[in-house]
Amino acid sequence: MLRQEKISAGQLGLMMFFAVAASAVTNVPGITGKYAQNDLWLSPIWASIIGYLTVYIAFSLNKLYPNQSVIQYSQTILGWFPGKLVGLLLILFYLHLTGLVVRGYAEFVVGNFLTRTPISVVMISMVMVNAMAVKGGVEVIGRTSQLFFLIFLLPVTLMPLLFQDMKLQYLFPMFEHGLTPSLLGSLVPQAWFSEFFLMAFFLPFVSNREKSLRSGMVSVFGIMILLTTINFFILFVLGRQASDFLYPVMIAFRYISVADFFQNLDSVVMGIWIIGMFQKISVFYYASVIGTSQWLGLKDYRPLVLPFGILIMVMGFWSVPNQLKASGFDVLAFPYYGPLVQTLFPLSLLTFAIWQKRGRQKKAWTTTSTNGTDS
Question: What global pTM score does this model have?
């Protein structure tokens, strides 16, 4: 039944766009500004290099094992037991990450808008909606990504309304301390870009797989442009004070006031951002569930959807006690934790797979040459 589900390469690119950009647009700019200051617009460009590399690794591994996800070809490459162990670690990693994403979403909503609402209510309501999407299958997630893509970009079109409050002089002096601040500022967003390895779970479902590499690369480029644009926007409005705010994007949008009529647009931005987070959590949720079903050898992943929803809630509460600790994780741990699991490990896996393939080819060539000499 799972093999009948198909998505296009374009849908995969949009799914990855949401999986990375939805939380990055709120969490990353403030952190980047602490290091890069008025060069924070440059940091996403450096960070995107990890994204391009990760997309290439995921596509190359799928090209070697076209009908398998990372959970499956890990066993093919490493052997049954080491592959099972690696698959389990990946499942736990994405389960943990999904819980953190849900918790970060709830902290943002409660901290900025629903201040009197218990955080558990916000988390449970989102996970329930995500569970329905995941149960609907990868096609549902792919089609909703198409549906919501232009809506998610709507806040970018609202930025010109802030033109009267923008101060272009905040851009200068550029490179006051060289490239080092912008490189340090790229450490956090590069961890978000490493999440493109989620492609490894979805590539077996892509109908026009030969276009997946281009779609993934375009998605990386699109996120880089989006983050760079938002960082320019924040810099021109808030200047170096952008680093003083946890969510500078929302602060900047609160400045919008056109003829005392267009006001409180941060609420509109909030509603659109929730759509993006719904897509992001759905992608992470589905990857965790489908990976577990493959690890267990189940024919259908759907019986796991509800139990995993409960586990995601548990992870969300267990992982971090409050928003301060969550922000600390984003700054101190995730820049190393994310790329290590999602870029460096897959790179090692690809290197080992290529070495194995060349070894088999050399052995086959040697056997053929020996047989030809004997004859």
Answer: 0.92
